[in-house]
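The material for today's practical consists of a large collection of protein records. Read left to right, the backbone structure tokens trace the chain's path through space. An example says more than a description, so a record of this kind follows:
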Amino acid sequence: MTTPVVRFAPSPTGRIHIGNARVALFNYLFAATHNGRFVLRFDDTDFARSTAAFAEGIEIDLAWLGIAPQVTLRQSERTSSYEATAERLRAMGRLYPCWETQEELEKRRKISQARGLPPVYDRAALNASGEDRARWEAEGRRPHWRFLLERKTVEWADLIRGPSHIDCASLSDPVLIREDGSFLYTLPSIVDDIELGISHIIRGEDHVTNTAVQIQLFEALAPEEPVPVFAHHNLLVSGEGEGLSKRTGSLSIASLREEGYEPLAVAALATLTGSSEAVRAVRTLEELASHFDLAHVSRNPARFDPGDLAPLTHRTLALLHYEDVRERLSAHDIVGFKAEPFWLAVRSNLSRFDDVLEWWRVVEGEIEPVREDEEMLARAFELLPAEPWDGTIWGQWTAAIKALTGRKGRALFHPLRLALTGKETGPELAALLPLIGHAKVAARLAPCRGQAA
């Protein structure tokens, strides 16, 4: 395989949701697996709805997921290329003007359907006379422009769906340019794909029906170049089986970030759901790429259950090394010689990353101990070893308490956990004890304690 070049091409008319992220991740991981390039292209020719704020938000969302494009461009800055290509197509006789109104076209479609015929555009505009055109112009009509399809069957080898084909005789010549002169998606997309050297187009299966038209455009505009390889993957649907919508904010990446889910958990669930690979926690996108294969993607809709994100986030945090989170810990002022052993001690007990703040308070701050058994705590206080402490001190101390009091199991450990952390459950106290330190432990165990240490 030659070095692949792929692209993610969102329209900045809203924030991306998990389904959009799936497309971006499929492309990014494919490029990463094959040492290729990933292009971020903003399809922002819808000037009424596209905004710079949405584009910036999409870049933020992708960066949060760990996706770093090698190239970023905006179609709104490339209009001259599209206009030049339109002129080429007109000169080739492949782009022709049509003067029908939407009402007239709709009436023709209904007539065709009533006759049991497919609602395919009849190419009446090709037979329009000069007098017809003059009359329409006098009425104030402006033409839209259609691409003249070859009436043939277009075939391609889809990397997910396998051998695929569409009979273009069943399709209407697609409109490429609106009456107001603005471009629809198709022409700018093909122009950019050719100029950027896009080798693989990986996208949702809702675009399958567009493929034959686009292949004909590739063949018309770049006859000497190979047509990109296509891969159409299954779509994510909600737990209720409904499609996801950017307009309604369904499972937006921004909302998932605000809820505290780990980006790697979101990426793993978005990528591996609907494939033969088991959804699993990963430490890096590189590791996720090693489990990613287009050949393993199912043809059936992929049901995305947001309820899976919480346990997957928990498992993901438990995998992360200190170096993976150093900057994030530092942002919360968790620094110094305790930072790394602290992370290793608490990472398996986190539901969200920000839970570290509560455990850092247990280690470095003030808490209100829960005193369940004053007599046992008094004995523990008396037997508290002097520093220095290491990882063995917890075992030594609890062995001495057990020998003196006869306590064991929950009767021994639970009162100590409540007094030292104020919590019912948590990280192993063998790891926490040296981090809390002798002074704080002694203060939390001291008899007749009236207030927090």
In short: The chain has four domains: 1-88+185-319, 89-177, 320-364, 374-445. The two ends are 65 Å apart (CA to CA). Residues 449-453 have pLDDT under 50 and may be disordered. The first strand starts at residue 5 and ends at 8.
